[in-house]
Amino acid sequence: MIKVLVVDDSALMRKHLGQILEEAGFKVCMARNGVEALQELHHFQPDVISLDINMPDMDGLTALSRIMVERPTPVVMVSSLTEKGAIATFEALALGAVDYLCKPGGTISLNIQQLRDEIVSKLRTASKARIRKTRGLAERIREENRRTNVDKRPASSATVTTSRGTMMARGKGLVVIGVSTGGPRTLEDILPNLPADFPWPVVIAQHMPANFTGAFARRMDALCRLQVVEVTRPMLLTQGMVYLGRGGADLVLSSRSSGIHVVSVPENNQYLWHPSVELLMRSALEHFRPTQLIGVLLTGMGYDGAEAMTELHRRGGWTIAESEETAVVYGMPAELVERGGANLVLPSHQVAIQLIGRLNG
Asked: Known catalytic residue: 207?
């Protein structure tokens, strides 16, 4: 039986979450704030923790930092669907949280029952997730400041000329990245390490709510030499750009007179997850030759993107699957490997090196 610690200052939320989880077969313990959570961390010894962000006495982020030091445990943050909630959630993911749940109606939600399946699924998955080593807060802040201060312009005109020459020789192309649970932290291992003159645009399908993708794009843009944007309108694919799919929608490519654009479209009910990696990759195969595409499948539960990236591999394209060594949830990349669709299986911190070498080698 999976033991879950529910941490929330709202008695109503504790009641709803506890009822849902007990009915699903979890053994549940409750805490009203971070102080009580740390006590139960050692007494109850949970397999997974549901942790609210905004609480008195000790807030969720402070408690999370202590949990990751005292007894590292998979944590799913419970956040509001607001800009402030999104920013706090990404901070929590950077500190070591595995995943997050969004309250559908504010701090105290009577609609929590609507999320029953998602709550059970995420906590069950998180209980088996790999806990990634968390850097110290001071070290992480120094690194983010260093990345923020990096000039986004190419280092020199000579570098630009070399990259453009390489791109012309190989033909223009596209990198497609698919990622789900554990994605924000994993993408921070990859995108900031790509140079400003990286020759191909990058398009990302990250499973995420609509209210979160804009804040996540801005966060990544501050960390990267490439420009990172959320796709809210048709955008021309351009070197030096990273395009993040808007939550609550799907991404496809479209050929126009000015070139190939990436377009946000309503969710396609044929696919289970959104933005759909499978749909994006199949759309890319319609607009690029396989040799002009690189597919990267990262951490996440399920199999989204595995079939289309296997097809890319079969037709002569290049694919990378994240290894079990670093994947928070070894689901999507495992599916790609098991189908024989991965050219390489790499830990997340080696993906950028491989992409750079592949396009500039």
From this structure: yes
CA distances from 101 to 29, 56, 80, 198, 271 (A): 18, 20, 8, 34, 21
**Ordered mean pLDDT values, 10 residues apiece, the chain (361 residues):** 95 91 97 96 97 92 95 92 83 93 64 82 94 54 47 36 33 92 95 96 95 94 97 96 96 95 96 97 97 97 97 98 96 98 97 93 60
Strands (E), 12-158: 27-31, 48-52, 75-80, 99-103
Supply φ then ψ for residue 292, to 5 degrees: -95, 10
Catalytic residue among 79, 80, 127, 180: 180
Catalytic one of 16, 207, 261, 274: 207
**226-240: b (≥16 Cβ within 10 Å) or e:** bebbbbeeebebebb
This prediction has a pTM of 0.86
State the distance between the two ends of the chain, measured CA to CA, in whole angstroms. 51
Q: How many CB atoms lie within 10 A of CB 284?
A: 27
Whether 156 is catalytic = no
Residue 180 annotated as catalytic: yes
Q: Which of 8, 47, 250, 304 is catalytic?
A: 304
**Phi/psi at 351 (5° precision):** -70, -45
